[in-house]
Design brief:
Layout: H1 2-20, H2 24-42, E1 45-50, E2 62-65, H3 72-79, E3 84-89, H4 98-105, E4 108-110, H5 115-126, E5 134-137, H6 155-163, E6 167-173, H7 175-178, E7 189-195, H8 207-233
Helix pairs in contact: 1-2, 1-4, 2-3, 6-8
């Protein structure tokens, strides 16, 4: 916690200052990952990334990941290696320094209690997704308190359909063991981030069907990984 607070204050302040002089994208690409990797290292997280060969350079994607723990943020921001914007819940805007820094870097806040405001935020985000810029969603909407995937909301998939860009499923493994939801019961451990092949989109693609396919890919990955762990344990 001391490192998290100190790093957020120091790096967040640097980001704010750089954003005010027009270097928002630079801050997002460099200082954001530095903050994430520092905190991941302090938490003694060993992170491996697989499937990066599925990602074409300078290509925009809608990235969709499962959400097991608060430390998923460190894994994605620090190790995803892409230029992207987050879709974040409105409540995070109120966090001192962090909320303002994310706002100035161009990340997108969504008020989930106000569907009209949420749709307007997503509409504004569409204009930023081009020339290799990606956008990342947690389509479950909130953290899963178990290994089970929650139902996927359709916003990410409607955006992919409207922009005609592929959806990349991302599965995150093991972060719930590093820091379980709703606790401070931290422990060191291994985490895996897997990029799965992009799912092509066209105007005939139904958002609900795309959500179903994406969820199925992530669920299969989680089930396979869990099965391997259980087999090894036995």
């Amino acid at each position: 916690m001391p490192v998290l607070l100190a790093s957020t204050l120091i790096i967040g302040t640097m980001i704010i200052l750089l954003c005010f002089i027009g270097l928002a994208d630079l801050s997002s690409r460099i200082l954001g990952p530095v903050w994430a990797r520092l905190n991941a290292a302090v938490m003694m997280m060993s992170i491996t990334v697989e499937g990066r060969e599925h990602i074409a350079p300078d290509t925009s994607y809608v990235l969709t990941a499962n959400h097991l723990s608060l430390v998923d943020i460190y894994v994605l921001y620090g190790y995803i290696g892409l230029n992207f914007k987050w879709v974040m819940k409105q409540e995070l805007r109120k966090v001192p320094v962090l909320g303002l820094a994310c706002d100035l870097m161009g990340h997108i806040y969504v008020d989930r209690s106000n569907p009209d405001a949420a749709r307007l935020s997503i509409e504004r985000a569409r204009a930023r997704i081009n020339q290799g810029m990606c956008i990342i969603f947690f389509p479950e909407g909130t953290r899963s308190r178990t290994q089970q995937l929650r139902p996927f909301k359709s916003g990410a998939f409607r955006m992919a359909q409207d922009l005609n860009i592929a959806v990349v499923p991302i599965s995150i493994h093991g972060t719930n063991k590093i820091l379980p939801s709703d606790t401070l019961d931290w422990r060191p451990g291994k985490v895996k981030l897997i990029f799965h092949p992009p799912q092509a989109v066209n105007q005939q693609t139904e958002a609900s069907e795309l959500a179903r396919l994406t969820r199925e890919i992530i669920q299969q990955s989680l089930t396979k990984e869990l099965g391997l762990v259980e087999e090894h344990t036995v």
